Amino acid sequence: MRAVDIIIKKRDKGQLTAQEIEFFVRGFTNGDIPDYQASSFAMAVLLNGMTPFETTDLTLAMARSGQVLDLSKVVDIAVDKHSSGGVGDKTSISVMPMVAACGLPVGKMSGRGLGFSGGTLDKLESIPGYRVDLTTDEFKKQLKEKGIVLTGQSLDLAPADGKMYALRDVTGTVPSMPLIASSIMCKKIAGGANAIVLDVKVGLGAFMQTLEEGRELAELMVDIGRLAGRKTSALLSDMNQPLGAAVGNALEMVEAIETLHGGGPADFREHCLHLAAHVLFLGQRAKDLTEARALAEKSIADGSALKTLRMLVEAQGGDPAYVDDVSKFERAKYIEVVKAPRSGFISQVHARIVGEAAVALGAGRAKKGDPIDHAVGFIIHKKVGDRVEKDEPLFEIHANDQTKLAEARNEVLSAHQFSDKSVPPLPLFYE
């Protein structure tokens, strides 16, 4: 068997066997198959797709490329929540502590920022000392003792995906349905989660632009989960505009923490409570979604969710004082409030434009290994459907470079569209 023959077969729209996929993934993982062939394979998959069977085989091969965790001796049930990426999506940082505070163990492995989509690890690293490189033994120990872990992929868990994930970001192969589905699900399967809730983003700032694409991805991932023996459910949520107000690593951490303090933007708080309810229900901590929602709300009201986040940060080497006092987070050198150029109703806040502008400021990576500037980003003051008056604050720019600030101002202004007539607000969830 040769890598080039597998690439050619997929290039010519053939269906790969489980053995061919296993061979390619194993060869790429151990270095026998070089980056350039893996890039070519990814592009062939992007252009020609994969069947559900091929995608499941790819998922399982990537999961088996390293250790597959068995957490049955550690906790009675381990849950995970995954978002398919978006702009301003800091939900894990609020939802996971809410769920763990309700007595449901959460073992989560997150990723870095990918394209214009922010990464949970990059956000968490804006807390000095926070470790995202726990070993498998540390993962298990912390899950057993604290009931919550939020770390990066360890090198021995789905290493094939870690390599492919970094490669996709710089070869234009991010928006591929089989590659997205297999990348998400292999980490969940390898990470030992028994129950998985998937938050599939749909819209201008998502990899899935339409509801139909989002539904296809959601159904594909739920099928993979079930075939692998995991309880899996998916929600389709809106990503036409940024979620919450903050876009940028430290700014999003502040917003996620403020939400656990009982504050935060209304749309973000509602999104988190709805997600937490689904996780608690799937994880059998509530008899229905109504009871699950009440548990999530209580975790914020009684301070237990905030206490759990503090415990998580401390357990992973971070400074817990940042959870108590968000003014400690690094601030950008230049902060500019941009005012509305006219009165009217907001008809669009183009999430992808805002996300790409944040990357250009330094909040994300243009290429593999780029450093992240944790302090930069935006605070978006208005949502679709809101009324705005001329010269009212529209958004804030947090920048460390005045040239980049000027470029960002124009970009984010262009993301805002206005209407003279009232505009209905966007739904948070579709189905």
Task: Give your account of this protein's structure.
- This protein folds into three domains: 47 residues, Transferase, Pyrimidine Nucleoside Phosphorylase, Chain A, domain 3 (Up-down Bundle); 248 residues, Nucleoside phosphorylase/phosphoribosyltransferase catalytic domain (Pyrimidine Nucleoside Phosphorylase, Chain A, domain 2, 3-Layer(aba) Sandwich), CATH 3.40.1030; 90 residues, Aldehyde Oxidoreductase, domain 3, CATH 3.90.1170.30.
- The protein is globular.
- Helix 10 links the parallel strand 4 and strand 5.
- The protein contains 17 helices and twelve strands.
- Helix content is 47%, strand content 14%.
- The termini are far apart.
- It is α/β, with parallel strands linked by helices and 431 residues long.
What is the overall number of helices?
A: 17
Terminal Cα span: 44 Å
Give the strand order, joined by hyphens, for the main sheet.
Answer: 6-9-11-7
Quaternary structure classification: single chain
Helix proportion range: 40-55%
* Broad shape: globular
Biggest sheet layout: 4 strands, antiparallel
Global structural class: alpha/beta
Strand proportion, as a percent range, falls in: 5-15%
CATH architecture of the largest domain: 3-Layer(aba) Sandwich
Spell the H/E element sequence: HHHHEHEHHEHHEHEEHHHHHEEHEEEHE
Quote the average pLDDT: 93
CATH class of the largest domain: Alpha Beta
Specify Rg, calculated over alpha carbons. Answer: 21 Å
Please give the number of β-strands.
12
CATH superfamily of the largest domain: Nucleoside phosphorylase/phosphoribosyltransferase catalytic domain
CATH overall fold name of the largest domain: Pyrimidine Nucleoside Phosphorylase, Chain A, domain 2
| Unreliable runs | none
